[in-house]
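for the writeup, i need someone to sanity check this before i put it in the appendix. the sequnce is what the collaborator sent (i think, or maybe the updated version? ugh). structure was predicted straight from it, no edits. if anything looks off just tell me and ill rerun, i have time this weekend
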Amino acid sequence: MVQETARINFETGNLDVVEGRIKALGGAINLLGGAVETTVGLMGLLGVDDKVQKQFQEAATSAIAFADGTKRIFEGYKELREAAD
């Protein structure tokens, strides 16, 4: 669905909508990253087992990497479209 929407927006030349979505995705990544940092810090303060903390950090890192990668795809696609115009 997201890919289809992005494709339609690029075909119609509506780069402003795509730019807005990239910014929104960047905000979501920042929110997720901040939430993860806060949670990991709280786990440390509460004395949660190091093994549990490590498992959580690994899962969170994967989620953040996925979100950041998605944002980079949109940015790259937008840049290619701008270069083609």
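The chain has a mean pLDDT of 81. The chain has one domain: 2-84.
thx in advance!!
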